[in-house]
């Protein structure tokens, strides 16, 4: 596969932007090689600058639940953009998207639109602190909540470790407001609440953690979080930037039937344009400016073009059986590959939750914590990844990232993809034996 145009574009990009990219994982650091520069997408397919065609399972890291250039989304954007791109005033479109959400989602009464998932989690965290008057936040190891200063921390080796920042440029004093705990560990939560009683504003969690593998939590753990938060006057904050409108219209909250106090959304909500949102009950949201004293604003918040893309996409998601069909075809696709891996005795398993899936290069049947993932096994992912690319399949370039199936993926395409996964697996395991 010829990729010389991508290679020269990347060389140029490196002279213009740090690492040649505007978001680090795009740089292919964890799989090696040169990022593929994409010039267009249609349905489930994308094409690079060298005219290579790929079946896309990255789907822009999740937003494109209808696939690329969905005609309804494109039409909505075109109609809106022709009338102007931004006014800095309220528009009817904001009402429409907000209404579409609150009238079909049991867990939010009001939303505030922002322009990214990071902005949504950052603002939700400020709201949690504003409402409770407390500073500390519990987060879990392996959960990513965007590049928010106080959430960009990972655990040390202890059970309940005060955060050490994962990034330079974050004051230690900020990181110290963050308590990082292992996922699915009730005792660790109880101990942290005991140790920091009266200081914790919220417990933040991706209810379906999908940024460090797919770490599906036991429902009883999430229910326990709900109960302990209620008992201890702590807000439960579900970061549903990935799972929201993806697992079902009501995301993980609806799937587990758990009512969080605060929710953050992004990705699917914006139909592929930059949109995030946070939402909660009327009472909690009444603390947001101008109604309340928790300040948060944005020049392009509620941008009409982005709103119209979100309206068009979510309207499709609300059609009967939308999520059931998506899940069914994802399951069929995955089961074919898993059955093959098992038959061949390969250490490999695909985990899924609805149309989100993750490739695990181990025989573990359950992975609930990031510490259960053996980083040395990820060398297999690199070989596998490049083989898949060669075969015409595009995935996010990291073994910790999940893949997404969209409505646009046809059964034929998924059958074909399952065959490519099987030959890539065979190749990968033969190659490993040579080492
Ligand atoms: C769970 C979660 N929260 C927050 C974010 C941040 O969203 P964004 O990249 O739009 O800022 C992400 C991004 O992947 C995410 O997966």
What proportion of the residues form beta strands (DSSP E)?
15-25%
Give me the oligomer status. single chain
- CATH fold group of the largest domain: Aspartate Aminotransferase, domain 2
Radius of gyration: 21 Å
Bound molecules: pyridoxal-5'-phosphate
Q: How many helical elements?
A: 13
Can you offer a commentary on this structure?
- Helix 3 (92-102) packs parallel to helix 10.
- With 435 residues, the protein is an alpha/beta fold.
- The protein folds into 2 domains: 4-69 and 321-434, Aspartate Aminotransferase, domain 1, CATH 3.90.1150.10; 71-317, Type I PLP-dependent aspartate aminotransferase-like (Major domain) (Aspartate Aminotransferase, domain 2, 3-Layer(aba) Sandwich).
- Mean pLDDT is 94; it is low at 155-160.
- The strands form 4 sheets. The chain has an 8-stranded mixed β-sheet, sandwiched between helices. Strands 1-2-3-16 form a 4-stranded mixed β-sheet.
- The two termini are 24 Å apart.
- It is globular and about 60 Å long.
- The protein has 13 helices and 17 strands.
In summary, what is this structure?
With 435 residues, the chain is of the alpha/beta class. Helices cover 38% and strands 15% of the residues.
Write the layout of secondary structure elements.
Blueprint: H1 4-16, E1 38-42, E2 45-48, E3 53-56, H2 71-81, H3 92-102, E4 110-114, H4 117-132, E5 136-140, E6 153-154, E7 161-162, E8 164-165, H5 172-175, E9 178-181, H6 186-195, E10 200-205, H7 219-232, E11 235-239, H8 251-256, E12 262-265, E13 276-280, H9 282-285, H10 304-317, H11 322-344, E14 349-353, E15 356-360, H12 378-391, E16 393-394, E17 403-404, H13 411-434
Parallel strand pairs: 3-16, 5-9, 5-10, 10-11, 11-12
Antiparallel strand pairs: 1-2, 2-3, 4-13, 6-8, 7-9, 12-13, 14-15, 15-17
Helix pairs in contact: 2-10, 3-10, 6-7, 11-13, 12-13
The structure holds pyridoxal-5'-phosphate (PLP).
Residues 61, 116-118, 121, 144-146, 206, 211, 239, 241-242, 266, 276 line the site of pyridoxal-5'-phosphate.
């Amino acid at each position: 596969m010829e990729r010389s145009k991508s290679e020269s574009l990347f060389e140029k990009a490196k002279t213009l932007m740090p690492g040649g990219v505007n978001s680090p994982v795009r740089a292919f650091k964890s799989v090696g090689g040169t990022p593929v520069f994409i010039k267009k997408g249609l349905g489930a397919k994308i094409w690079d600058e060298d005219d290579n065609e790929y079946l896309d399972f990255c789907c822009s890291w999740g937003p494109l639940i209808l696939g690329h250039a969905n005609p309804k989304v494109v039409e909505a954007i075109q109609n809106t953009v022709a009338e102007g791109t931004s006014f800095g005033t309220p528009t009817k479109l904001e009402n429409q998207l907000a209404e579409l959400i609150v009238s079909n989602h049991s867990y939010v009464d009001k939303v505030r639109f922002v322009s990214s998932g990071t902005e949504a989690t950052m603002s939700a965290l400020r709201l949690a602190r504003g409402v409770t008057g407390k500073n500390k936040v519990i987060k879990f190891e392996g959960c990513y909540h965007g590049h928010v200063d106080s959430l960009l921390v990972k655990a040390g080796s202890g059970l309940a470790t005060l955060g050490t920042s994962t990034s330079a440029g974050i004051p230690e004093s900020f990181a110290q407001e963050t308590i990082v705990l292992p996922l699915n560990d009730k005792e660790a939560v109880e101990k942290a609440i005991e140790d920091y009683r009266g200081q914790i504003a919220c417990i933040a969690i991706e209810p379906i953690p999908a940024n460090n593998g797919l770490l599906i939590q036991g429902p009883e753990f999430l229910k326990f979080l709900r109960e302990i938060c209620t008992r201890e006057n702590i807000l439960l904050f579900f970061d549903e930037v990935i799972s929201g409108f993806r697992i079902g219209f009501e995301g993980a909250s609806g799937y587990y039937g758990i009512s969080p106090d605060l929710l953050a959304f992004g990705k699917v909500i914006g139909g592929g344009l930059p949109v995030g949102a946070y939402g909660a009950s009327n009472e909690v949201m009444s603390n947001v400016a101008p109604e309340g004293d928790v300040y948060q604003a944005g020049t392009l918040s509620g941008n009409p073009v982005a709103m119209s893309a979100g309206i068009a996409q979510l309207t499709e998601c609300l059609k009967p059986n939308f999520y059931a069909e998506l899940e069914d075809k994802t399951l069929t696709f995955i089961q074919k590959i898993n059955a093959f891996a098992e038959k061949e005795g390969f250490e490999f398993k695909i985990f899924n939750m609805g149309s989100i899936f993750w490739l695990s290069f181990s025989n573990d049947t359950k992975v609930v914590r990031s510490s259960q993932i053996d980083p040395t096994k990820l060398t297999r992912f690199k070989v596998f990844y490049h083989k898949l690319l060669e075969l015409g399949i595009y995935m996010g370039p990291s073994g910790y990232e999940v893949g997404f199936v969209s409505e646009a993926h046809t059964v034929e395409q998924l059958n074909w993809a399952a065959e490519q996964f099987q030959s890539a697996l065979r190749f990968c395991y033969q190659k490993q034996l040579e080492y």
